[in-house]
Design a protein that fits this description.
The protein has helices at 2-14, 16-19, 23-28, 40-47, 50-57, 60-67, 74-80, 103-118, 134-143, 154-166, 200-212, 238-241, 263-286, 301-304, 308-318, 328-350, 353-370; strands at residues 124-128, 146-151, 171-175, 191-199, 217-223, 373-379, 390-396. It has 405 residues and is α/β, with parallel strands linked by helices. It folds into two domains: 2-77 and 262-350, no CATH class; 103-256 and 358-396, Rossmann fold (3-Layer(aba) Sandwich). Bound molecules: S-adenosylmethionine.
Length: 405
């Protein structure tokens, strides 16, 4: 684990110019590092058709094969990101336990529930950022042990408690703020703490509190790494703190920038909106309406169907700019060209999505090792069920100094 982390750190450092980019802004800059064909990568971008970009975007393997000509370490990088998969069998949910649980969530909680059960230590459970307590229901039912479901939203606590009571489960919802001092009072030394998709600092806070209180076991599946209180990621492990790899809040979003899964309509809207925004920026700059990038507020998707010209009038009205008569077709076309450039640049950045996610996961794993836990990392379901499919499990090693392996 330590070797993997160190090699990942080295490769991320070495290639940071490829992933520390903002494709949207890069596409606006006609003199960016890839815009001329002098670099091999720039030449490759220039030769890609929109159809090819789209094919590569939706076929990770093909994309990596093409990119590995320019980024020779890509195969090594990808092999570092392969985690053991948990067996794909799911716990059968007894009738009633699945009430109100959406389809994909069912798969997640049954698979994660099974893993929690296999690794269970302690006499109780703590379900951190529980929502309606879907995972807790399984754990209470399977183990008979008490589940404390800690959740911020009172409505979710009320719904979760009422369902648990109807099912006769030993679950106690506690409303509270994970960041408050009182949060620790929901914890006790008998609990196995679990968290399914607690965002950013919420799962970090759990790891800090739970390891401080020496809880017997911790199982989490992290998500939304960018939802942090500071401007930069604060590594937890000593190894990561000494790695010199810093990540801004914007860079913490990179692992979440999945290929759009929302179907053809959502993708069409996105392409149209981005092209319009990029074209509008070209119009503003070239017609000297403004001399810097000006963010335009979000727009109702139905307005997009009125076309680029209507978008420009709408944006100018919002920004109190007066729009002269211009060649809208020219700027619409620039917007479209910029859009495909942005998509091409994103292909490179997306090759680093999983490596960054695994780096963040291993930071937590190494922190728990440093804190006296035996740790394993795996995937608990396939990527289609949820791209946030990493699972970190830690069991307390009593009176034994944790070691890296
Ligand atoms: C992504 S949801 C996951 C819910 C549940 N674990 C699941 O997978 O269905 C994150 C949950 O964290 C809760 N939450 C957000 N901020 C919180 C805070 N400061 N303290 C406690 N819970 C919080 C939200 O209300 C939400 O229910």
């Amino acid at each position: 684990m330590l070797n993997t982390f160190q090699t990942l750190t080295e490769l991320l450092h070495k290639h940071q110019d490829l992933w520390r980019i903002e494709p949207f802004f890069l596409a606006m800059d006609s003199n960016n590092k890839w815009s001329n064909s002098q670099s091999e990568l720039g030449e490759w971008f220039a030769g890609l058709s929109s159809r090819e970009i789209e094919l590569l975007k939706f076929n990770r393997e093909r994309c990596n094969n093409s990119l590995s000509k320019f980024i020779p370490c890509l195969d090594e990088l990808m092999s570092l990101c392969v985690l053991p998969e948990l067996p794909q069998s799911e716990l059968a949910l007894p009738r009633g336990l699945d009430k109100g649980v959406p389809g994909r969530k069912q798969s997640q909680i049954t698979r994660m529930g099974q893993s929690c059960m296999q690794h269970h230590q302690g006499q109780e459970w703590l379900e951190w950022c529980a929502g309606k307590g879907y995972l807790g229901r399984i754990l209470a039912h399977q183990s008979g042990h008490k589940v404390t479901s800690f959740e911020y939203q009172q409505t979710l606590c009320d719904i979760g408690q009422s369902e648990a009571d109807k099912l006769g489960l030993n679950m106690q919802f506690t409303q509270g703020d994970a960041f408050s001092v009182q949060a620790m009072s929901a914890m006790n030394g008998q609990q196995h703490a679990v968290a399914l998709h607690a965002c950013g600092d919420l799962h970090v806070t759990l790891l800090r509190h739970a390891s401080h209180l020496k809880l017997p076991a911790i199982t989490i599946s992290p998500c939304c790494y960018h939802l942090i209180q500071g401007e930069e990621y604060q590594p937890l492990s000593k190894v990561a703190q000494q790695s010199g790899l810093s990540l801004t809040r914007a860079e913490l979003r990179i692992p979440l920038q999945e290929t759009v899964t929302g179907g053809a309509r959502v993708q069409r809207h996105r392409a149209q909106e981005m092209s319009y925004r990029l074209g509008f920026d070209a119009l503003c700059q070239q017609e000297r309406l403004i001399d810097h990038y000006m963010p335009v507020p979000s727009i109702k998707k139905s307005l997009l169907s009125e076309g680029f010209e209507a978008f420009c009038y709408w944006a100018c009205e919002r920004k109190q700019l007066s729009l002269p008569a211009v060649d809208f077709a020219k700027y619409a076309s620039i917007g479209e060209q910029r859009f495909w450039r942005m998509e091409a640049y994103s292909l490179v950045q997306s090759a680093f999505r999983r490596p960054l996610e695994i780096w963040l996961l291993l930071d937590k794993a190494l922190y728990l090792k440093e804190s006296g836990y035996r740790v394993s990392v795996s995937t608990f379901c396939d990527y289609q069920t949820t791209p946030r499919n990493c699972l970190l499990h830690a069991s307390r090693v009593e009176n034994k100094k944790a070691s890296y392996n």
